[in-house]
User: Fold this.
Amino acid sequence: MLITASSIKESKEHFDLVKAHPEIFYSTAGVHPCTVAKEFYAPVPLYDTKLATLKDIIEEGATKGYIKAIGEIGLDYDRLHYTPKEQQLEAFERQLQLAALLKHLHLPLFLHMRAACDDFIRILKPFIDRGDIVGGVIHSFTGSLEELTKLLPLGLFFSVNGCSLKTQENLETVKHIPINRLMIETDAPWCEIRKSHAGYHYILRYPNIYYPETAINTMEHNTTETDTDPAKVLTSNKVIAYTKGKLDDNLPFYSVKKEKFNDVVALGSRYEEDTGTSLDHWKYPLVKSRNEPVNVGHVAQVVCGIHGFTTEEEIKSFIDTVYDNSCQAFNVQ
Assistant:
């Protein structure tokens, strides 16, 4: 799983997460266009000092195997209220110069592009043409078909999530991304696939080939008069949380409101202590209305639906291809 950094502080802090979950978590290092003003210009411009710090973080992280890409860097003209255009342009070029300086580390770019296609290409293409960049991915791609056509010659990968699947125009654009250049992602906790999105109707009810049926152990726990809400415990094999958790229609998990999450986990620990029974992943529910990494299968369902892939062979071939694309791009074995 790739954790994306948006600031120098996050780039360093992610080391602890990756270290705690070796070969499961990896990270990026870089400054997101929307945080450029705060990072490099407030209260005064500090490019040289900040870039030197970022360089040290990237070198250390790459040496330790923590960092797999430089980013999230790029341009976002949809949210200029966070960082003005000129500041974004300078930060993008300066971070690309840093990537070129560190190209011996063989780190790809993790790129962000919103409503800035022409400037994005103008700044990035010379680095690619000189061989200063070892590849990369335009993540959370929401561009038009015209923009896709302009971007494809750069030789980059494109990654899609719920934000890429909102409208019929989005779906048509995604269909034109060559599968050997495609990745899928969630961008959790953002960019969920909502019921109002054009791609939502492709999502299947659980169980299905993307989320095979999960064997659930029968667990019983007798409530007592001392049990208080939200202590509604698991009963038989109909898994309902201790709170008013609800099994998801499209996933083999239950979800609770954010404010009850800690209560549920604490009650799960108590249940395990009282019964000697492990709740495994049932101990940690999904949070309602928050995107989660497990939803990546829904992105796969929508993209397969767009392409008309319905057989088990077609679906598995697609999933294998996009998975291999990710491993190749980020040099993960």
